[in-house]
Amino acid sequence: MRNDKENVIVDKTISFSLAIIKYCEVLEQNRKYVIAKQVLRSATSIGANVFEAQTAESKADFIHKMKIAAKEASESMYWLILCEKSDGYHFDVALRSAIEEIIRILSKIISSSKGKIPGFI
């Protein structure tokens, strides 16, 4: 159940999503519509899945939602790497650092949550 306690991963993914929205606006101003759409979808999906996991029906459901968030984070990293390496694309190194941190946190959450379920690998 979601509560009012501080939740680092929820806070970080919301902040990341807000930064991505601004970043995608810059991409769109530069007529990079296809990449902007891809980045926006995958990056904001991370936070949506993390947020949804807070009301998971079971520990297994929680892990499943966090794994989806991790996959979306990995996809977001891919799109950001493309932006970084492509000529003519604006790139924000702070976004790269933020997604790397989110991936580390998600990996830790998933691995520690798995350890709490008997027989779950």
From TrEMBL:
<dbReference type="InterPro" id="IPR036583">
    <property type="entry name" value="23S_rRNA_IVS_sf"/>
</dbReference>
<dbReference type="InterPro" id="IPR012657">
    <property type="entry name" value="23S_rRNA-intervening_sequence"/>
</dbReference>
<protein>
    <submittedName>
        <fullName>Four helix bundle protein</fullName>
    </submittedName>
</protein>
<dbReference type="Pfam" id="PF05635">
    <property type="entry name" value="23S_rRNA_IVP"/>
</dbReference>
